[in-house]
Each structure stands twice: as structure tokens, then as C-alpha cells.
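Appendix B, record 7
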Amino acid sequence: MSTFEELVAEGSRVPVEGWDFSWFSGRATEERPPWGYARMMADRMAGARRALDLQTGGGEVLSEVTAPPPVLVATEGWAPNAALAQRRLPHAVVVCVREDADLPFPDDSFDLITSRHPVRTRFDEVARVLEPGGTYLSQQVGPGSVRELTDAMMGPQPVGTGRDPARLRDEATACGLDVVDVRAARLRMEFHDVAAVIVFLRKVIWTVPGFTVDRYRDRLRALHDRIEADGAFIAHSTRFLLEARRPA
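C-alpha cells (predicted):
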């Protein structure tokens, strides 16, 4: 069995670019939302003519689409991920755009816009570049996601309302979109060693803002001891699905 220091060293050197979570196999698990976003996205893409995937990460989910539309564009705010996505998506055009920036596309450019776990959703821009009758489909991170891990590292933290489904539904409606579907789920997560915790915190940086191993070593040691005693650290992610259409 690996020691705490060995696990810390391993977790510190794992590459964290992109949104490929295959490294966690056997070390951490997370339930999947019941609606099956990747399948829904692929179904919508198969019937689209011009599609845009916002904040695509390294293109991991978009690369699963087997029948892409004739025109496929993706945006990503972090340049290393954008480069990774372009290599992974040779049939798409990948544009590096900040999450909070205006979209560099003309009005009414796309009949489908998708986004999985966006940092921020500019519904005003979505409504502008979506053509009349077009669809926006997104799976988003909900409020208080993985809060057990955040609290274990930082002490009890307030749960913000910025990712509340009702708030985002209201924002979409205010920008002229018709929200046709909202679903939410709370999903069990298990971390089986502290290396998995470290890689997760290095990768999903908003869980513990400013996380470094040195800064949180004492908390990581306590979490390691807890996992050794209990067999796993249990947390819960929150996810919601939002589908909207621009009126024809």
C-alpha cells in the first residue's frame, strides 16, 4: 500500500490538461446523470446543419459524436485545451475565446448550440448567434457541487446561487429564449486515495480556489487518514440539464 508521501508525489505529477478523466479509473467514481447528455448531444448533432459547442475543453465529449453536422465549430477559453481540441477534432474549427467574451460569430449563425459544464453562460450571446427555431442544449454544474470536499479542505463554505437552475432559467428567458426542459440530479462520488483527490483538485480548480499541495498538506494528510479508516471519501456532485429554443 502506498504511503501518504508516495500518493502526494503521484497526484502532483499527473497531467491535468483537458477533460479526460480516464486516469481516475479504479481510484475514484462518480455517478452519471440519468438523462445521458453525450447521447442527447449526439442525437441533436446528427440532425443539425451548423452547430457550435461552447467551452469544449479538450473536445472529449464532442469527439464522441459519430455523425457531426456539415459545419461544426467549437470554442475554448484556455489555449492548451483549444490546441488539444483541434488535434482531437480534425473535422471541426476550434476557436480560442474567453468564457465571458462576446462570441466572434455573426447573428443567426447556428441551428444548434451545445455546452457541457460551462464556466459561464452568456445567454445574450447564445440567443444572438442561434438562428430562429434553433436549440441550446447544456449540462451544467449545479450549486454546492462536491461541497463535502471543499469543506474538508477549506472549512465550511457558503453555497452560492450563481449556478442555481432557476436563476439560469430566468437569465435564458430574459434573453428571449424559451426554456423547454430543466432537470437536476445529485450524484454520489467516491475517492479511494488521496492522489485521486489531488488530481481532481488540480483539474477542477473551482472546487478549492488556489489549491496547491503545499498549502493544503495538513488537510490532505487528515483526508488520507480518513480514507485509510473508512475506505473512501464520499462527496456528491450536482448537475442539471437545460434545453432552450430561440422562438421561430
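Remarks on this record: The helical segments are 4-13, 37-46, 79-88, 123-129, 147-154, 165-174, 194-203, 217-230. The chain has eight helices and eight strands.
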